[in-house]
Design brief:
Helix content: over 70%
Structural class: mainly alpha
Largest sheet: none
């Protein structure tokens, strides 16, 4: 099904917002973790405890990136899965065999 110019524009804005949100998230992650590292290294104690928030938040940032760049609206993977399900449901509706 072809997309109208309005649909393309709306999708482009949605994708740009999602990517910008991830870039902002990544910048905040870097700045905050540098600050936490400095406190850990030069402030409180000799143990490098800053690795705990670094890794925990890093997992969250990675999952956010996956959702934006790989699983987001109209990503290649998502579109292929939607198309596959659409075809499967149409075959079922028409009474033909489904996989």
């Amino acid at each position: 099904m072809p997309m109208s110019a309005e649909d393309i524009e709306r999708l482009a804005h949605k994708r740009a917002r999602a990517k910008l949100g991830w870039y902002i998230h990544a910048m905040v992650y870097i700045v905050v973790n540098l600050f936490i590292f400095a406190i850990s290294r030069y402030g409180f104690g000799s143990r490098p405890w800053s690795v705990i928030p670094f890794l925990g938040w890093g997992v969250g940032l990675a999952l956010h990136g996956i959702s934006v760049f790989f699983l987001g609206a109209s990503s290649g993977l998502r579109e292929r899965l939607v198309q596959h399900e659409r075809e499967r449901l149409r075959r079922r509706r028409d009474g033909t065999q489904s996989r």
